[in-house]
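Much of the work behind modern protein science is quiet bookkeeping, done one molecule at a time. The protein below has been through that process, and both of its lines are reproduced in full.
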Amino acid sequence: MKDLFRALNYVKGYWKYALLNILFNIFFSVFSVFSITLVIPFMDLLFQTNEKLIEYSSKAEPVLSLNGDSIKDFFYYKMSSYITQYGIGAEQIAQGKKEALIFICISVVVLIFFKNLFRYFAMFFLAPIRNGVVRDLRNRMMKKALALPLSYYSNERKGDIISRMTSDVQEIEWSIMQTLELIFREPIIIIVSLAWLIGISPYLTLYVLILLPVAGAIVALVGRGLKRSSSRSKEMLGGLFSIMEETLGALKVIKAFTGEKFIQKKFESMNQKHYKLSVGIYRKTDLSSPVSESVVVAALMIVMFLGGSLVLANNGALSAAAFMGYFAIASQILPPIKQITVAYNSIQKGIASEERIDQVLKARLEIMDPEQPVELKEFKHSIEYKNLSFAYTKGDAGYVLKKINLQIEKGKTIALVGQSGSGKTTLADMLPRFYDPSEGEICIDGVSLKNMRLQDVRSLMGIVSQESVLFNDSIHNNIAFGIETATREQVIEAAKIANAHDFIMQMPQGYDSNIGDRGGKLSGGQKQRLSIARAILKNPPILILDEATSALDTESERIVQDALNSLMRNRTSVIIAHRLSTIVHADEIIVLMNGEIIERGNHQYLLGQNGTYKKLFDMQSFK
C-alpha cells in the first residue's frame, strides 16, 4: 500500500490542481451512480397498479430528510402526484405516466451530461499535474546531469541517462494519473455504489462484499513481478539508446571499417531481448483486466441468481424493479475494478521508473561549493599544486598523479609533456576542478579550490581542447556560448583575433550560419578557430590548451597557432603539448612519466640535460 502513495510525492506544488481533480472526481462518481438509481423508483411506480398510484398521491406530503426511506417516500409521493395530476381515470393516469417517462428520460440525460462535464473538469485539472511533473522531473534531471562530476559518466552510459529522462519520466506521468484515479475516483464510485446497494438489499450486498476481495487477490497475483520485469526492460532500453548514441557519433569510423553488420547485429540482439521482455510485461498487464472482469462478472451472476430467487419467491423481500436497479448499480462496480487493476499495474511500472530516476537524482555530488566560500573574482599572483596525488579508483595501484608540486606564476606559460598515459590531461583537468585531488590540494592566490565557488574558479579559465566541442547552432551562438551579454561586434572581434572571420564571412549566412551537429559542416581547422574565438571572447586570465593543434594539417596548424599566440598574450597558460615544436618558447616545461614529474625547466635547459625531453624532441625532429 505504501508504494501506491509514492507517486503522490511528485504532486507537491500542484495540490491546488490535485484537490480540484479530486473534487470533480467525487462529483463524477456521485452522478455516475445517481443517474442510474433515479430510474429505479420510477420503474417501480411504472409497474404499480393505478390504485397504488392513487394511494401514494393521496397521502400527506412526507418530510424530506437524509434517510433512505424518507427520500424514497418523498420521491414516490412527488412522482405519483405528477402522474395523477390530470385525474385518476385510466386514460389520465396513462397520460401522466407518459409525461413522467419523458421527465425521467430528460433528467437522466441531464445527469449524464453533468457526469461527463465533471469528468472533463477532473481531467482538465489533471493535465497541469501530469505535464508539470514531467517538466519538473526533466528539469531536475538535467540540472543534476550538469552538476554531476565527470567521473560519474565514466561509469554510466549516456544512452541510459537519456532513457531515464525520456521513457522513465513518461512512465511517472502515467503512474501519477493512475494513482490519483486509483485513490480518489474509483474507490468513490465503488463506495457510493455499495451505499445504494446496501439501501436496496443488505442481504445481496453481503455477497458482493465477500466476492469483491477475491477479485482483488487474483489481480494482485497476476501482476506480481511486474515491477521487477519493468525495471529490467528500462535497463535494456537504456542499452539501446546507448548503442544508438554511439553509432550516430561514430558513423564515419563504422563505415570506414565496414562495421555496419557488426553494429546492426549488436543492436538487433539487444532489441530482441527488450522485445521478449516487453512482450511478457504487456501480456501480464493485459491479463489482469480480463481476469478481473471474469471474476467480477461471475460474482455478479451469483448476485443475479440470488436476487432473482428473491423476486421469484414473491415474498416482498425484493421487487422486480428494485432488483433491476440493484443489478444496474452492481454492474457499475465492474469498470472501476477493471480500472483499478490497470492503475495498479501502471503504478508498479511507475515505481520501477521512479527508482531508476532516483538513482540519478540522489547520486552523490562529490564536487560541491563550500558552505562559506572565499570570494575570489580576480587572479593576481600564482597557481600552486601542493603535494597532489590523484586516483580515479582508490588504492595505490590506481594513482594517476603522484606527489605533484608545481607553482605557476601569473603571466607565465607552462607546458606539460610526456608519453600517453603520463597524466598530462588529468593534471590540467584538476585546475578547473573537474576532479578533486585524492591527496594534497590546488591553490589560486593561496586559496584552495575547495574553498571557492565552482563558478568563480571556472570563470577565471578558458579551455581549448584537441577535440573542438561545438553545438548544433549558429556560429555567433557558438562563439558567444556562456556569455549572454556578448554583442555581435564583440563576437566579430574575437573571430578576427582567432583568424576565423574570413571563412565565416564566406558562409551562406555569415555569423548566423548553422554549423551542424558537432560542427560537422566545418573543417578541423575551422572548428578549432571557433573554439579559440570562444575562449578569446571569454577573456579568461588563465588558459588551458589541451593539444589544441595536434589533429590539424600543417597549414591549419600554422593558422591556428597564430590564433593561439594571440590568445595566450598576457595570459597565464597551461599547455598540454604533443608537438614539442609548439612549446619551445614556454617559460617552463614539465615532463611527466607515470604520474610523476621527472624533468622540468625551459627548452634549452632540458635539451642540455640529455634526458627524456631531449629524446622526445629528437624523435620528433628526426621525423
